[in-house]
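seq:
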Amino acid sequence: MNFDSKLISGVFIKRYKRFFVDVQINDKLVTAHCPNTGSMSGLLKKGNKVWLTKSTNPSRKLKYTLQIIKVKRSKVGVNTHLTNKIVFHALKNNLIKEFKNSIHIKPEVKFGENTRFDFLVHNKNYKAFVEVKNVTLMRKSKIAEFPDAVTKRGAKHIKELVKASKRGYKVFIFFIIQREDCDLFKVATDIDPEYSELISKAVKKKLKILCYDCKFSLKGIKVNKKIRFIN
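struct:
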């Protein structure tokens, strides 16, 4: 998945009103869009290096968008709007071993009356719904966690995936860890106990958990390697 425009480096100053960040670019202070509604715990330290993109759309009020934050020596992708694009690129280019033999990849597929799953992946042998979640939280060294805040939407998706499993679909939650410094992934039970309990029950009902981290470059972000899920 490549960025629409080249990355611009800067220094993080502060985040406010959830969707705004101030960034120092050389001698200029700019206000950029923060495309992440989560808490972004552990990332928002004044002085951290960041990378932005600049839009050429004349109607946009905020020309800059925050894309990556550097925490210590590691890059963390914070734009949740890119998560599905990263996965779509990986599926199309056979970077996910669980879906290497898939022929059809369809984004945003309706299930039931009020649910859309991120992807329907299928070939002549199976059909699978894949729901994608973006991960940035790391509280203990090398262990990525999700969620970083209570997620009612995430809980709903688990329940709907279980229903889809009962109708014969394979079902997956795909945790994209937009970091390059984690070896393990776990659910943050203390942050959202209900989500943790639902995951545990759903795994016993054929829900599969996939976790992959990401590789960053100045051009874009790509799925990298599989990360072990610990329950």
